Amino acid sequence: MSSQLVVFSAMSIVAVLSAVGVIVSRNAVRAALALVVNFIVLGVLYFTMNLELLGISQVLVYTGLIMMLFLFCILLLNLGAPQMLEETSGLKRYVAVLLSLVLIVLVLTQVLGPVAFSGAPGSESALAGIPTAPDGYGTAKSVGTEIFTNWIYALEICSVLLLLGIVGSILLAKRRG
What we know:
The protein is mainly alpha-helical. It folds into 2 domains: 3-130, Four Helix Bundle (Hemerythrin (Met), subunit A), CATH 1.20.120; 139-177. Helices cover 73% and strands 0% of the residues. It is built from 6 helices and no strands. It has helices spanning 3-24, 28-48, 52-76, 91-116, 140-149, 152-176. Helix 1 packs antiparallel against helix 2. The longest helix is centred in the middle third of the chain and has 26 residues, at 91-116. The radius of gyration is 21 Å and the shape is flat.
């Protein structure tokens, strides 16, 4: 089994487990945090396939904006269980520390691996055999060029629809107030 397959499988397993955690969690805060983990892992998988813009968008938009908004709403409405503030002890703490260390080691070996072990046999990146996008595909420049040349009308329609939504929500808020 190649190291490429091991790393890709590990990321896939984390993505699947965090998605299952979203579904089966009875605590809204834990479900939202599991969804944050899922979004981050998906962003990392996009980066491994040379889709930088999609990976950055995934992490910034979904994890950074939408999920933080969900967490703030959950905490503001006090939807979390009161026992979640209790101190975690015993086996759960050790498993969490162990899994965190394994994740840190995996990330560091992928980030520093080609640099730190550049002369060693087998120093190629573990993700070298995973199919990737062609050079220049999925970058900010190629996506921007495509949007502003071939999809300019769709972009303008979306901007008008977003503006109408904002104006409509302001009007509804003023009527109720």
